[in-house]
Amino acid sequence: MPAHDPPPRRATLVLVTPAGELLGRLDEIEVATPWWQDARAVVAAARAATGLDLTVLRLLDTELARPQGGGVTYLAEVSGPLPAGVPLRAPLDEALRVRALADAPERPAYARPGGPAADLRWAVEVLGTHGLRLAGAPVQDRTWNLSSLWELPTDDGGSAWLKVVPAFFAHEGAVLARLQGGPVPTLLGRDGPRVLLAAVPGEDQYEAPRAVLLEAVDLLVGVQRAWLGRAAELEAAGVPSARAEPLTAAVADVVARRAAALPPADRAALDRLVAGLGERWAAVTACGLPDTLVHGDAHPGNVRGTPGALTLLDWGDSATGHPMLDREAFLAAVPPADAPAVRAHWSDAWRRAVPGCDPEGAARLLAPVAAARLAVVYQRFVDRVEPTERRFHDADVVDALAAAARALAVEEAAAR
Q1: Which of 61, 185, 318, 370 fits 73 for a cystine, CB–CB 3.0-4.6 Å?
Q2: Once rounded to an integer, what is the mean pLDDT over residues 312-340?
Q3: Distances in Å between the alpha carbon of 314 and those of 10, 66, 107, 163?
């Protein structure tokens, strides 16, 4: 994302019935947040402007080339007759009509008319198996190419979270099932790409103080310690592999496909990185930490709760691989003043977990690999989501490759 604050978001909503019939579009409305995937703010703005309750299905177009803010056009579903006085504009211009009606094989069910309603029916059935019922209308929180999130108020005074993901994240339910009893959300039910979770109280820890950051590190290392040497077991459950051989091939592929967008010096650095991966992995192995479960998106915002009661969220990016692949992404999201303490605490935790290992050496060797792995992850998103949604991730591929080249340059400079 750009370093500056994103501009305000303005939403145009193209309305469709549950049967897929186009109705027209609403006038552009101002939305309180800039984040394209934040459906809650769009639904609230539409209700305030028109009195209309709707469900955001998917992105149709954006004014800007990459997130966030600016003009955004969504397809939104209405479940009943339109209230009197809704300022509907019809017919649609041809380009927008075609975009709204076009199909895409990559599109998840939750981005299609009727899809969210089917997910909610399943969630209500699961609540019933736990003796719970809805205590109010479900609230759509987020929808985009990586997930659909809903909050369901329950009659016990709490709430549940419905999360539905595309097929390439569907292993998250299997991971959560194996981590129950640990620092992860309580799993109420799962069905392929759907999971229903007990809501986690507290706050997302984007601005966490140092003590909370260190506690989060301990929780993640504790989970990973329990799965050391059990990568094959996870892979048998559908968890993808980011171990040495498949990750080497994936990095070579993304470099070949996307490095041309980078300056010559960065391209040359990436070529050196790819050429030396075999030797690099041998050195990583010599550091003495076996493969385990990698969270894949470990940052403070994926930690929720309160000090002493933290939960690790969002395991959709999880894979098997070296545990230190998670460290650089976490460090990149903490205040610079806290980074040295977090780095040292992380290494100390692994020295206690695996006596005689060299976590700091492994982390240094994996710094450019971890950045290149992010490029692999973003490219896989681009390859697996429909064309209008690729703008969420496309620029991130090149940014991650540039970061890998920079990490290698730092390593080479230190060696000189």
Answers
A1: 61
A2: 95
A3: 28, 23, 21, 10
